[in-house]
Specification:
The protein is built from one helix and four strands. It is low in regular secondary structure. The strands form two sheets. A two-stranded parallel ribbon has the order 1-4. A two-stranded antiparallel ribbon has the order 2-3.
Length: 96
């Protein structure tokens, strides 16, 4: 197995960065965090959506140029406003 891209404990890469465990050709580098490379809470790393390739999102910490450009954030979807539910009038003896 080849050596990890980031060497030493004093390297500025994040603790979860694939550069600390993989050689440079084994992971992709995005220019910033994105929905295309979400964090996987099951193992604590980021992967691409299409083929689960390990992903780094801080190229400035590695000193490399990104090889993938993150798409702009998705517009938040606003839920449709539902009218408040109206209570029907009940005679007092049925409201109890």
């Amino acid at each position: 197995m080849s050596e990890p891209f980031a060497h030493g404990e004093d390297h500025p890469a994040c603790g979860i960065c694939p550069s600390k465990r993989l050689p440079r050709e084994a992971f992709v580098v995005y220019d910033r965090p994105s929905w295309e490379c979400p964090f996987d809470p099951a193992d604590g790393h980021r992967y691409t959506l299409d083929d689960r390739t390990p992903a780094c999102v801080h190229p400035h910490k590695l000193g490399v140029e990104p090889d993938r450009i993150a798409p702009p954030p998705k517009d938040p979807v606003e839920p449709e406003a539902t009218p408040p539910r109206r209570r029907r009038w009940l005679p007092s003896f049925l409201a109890r």
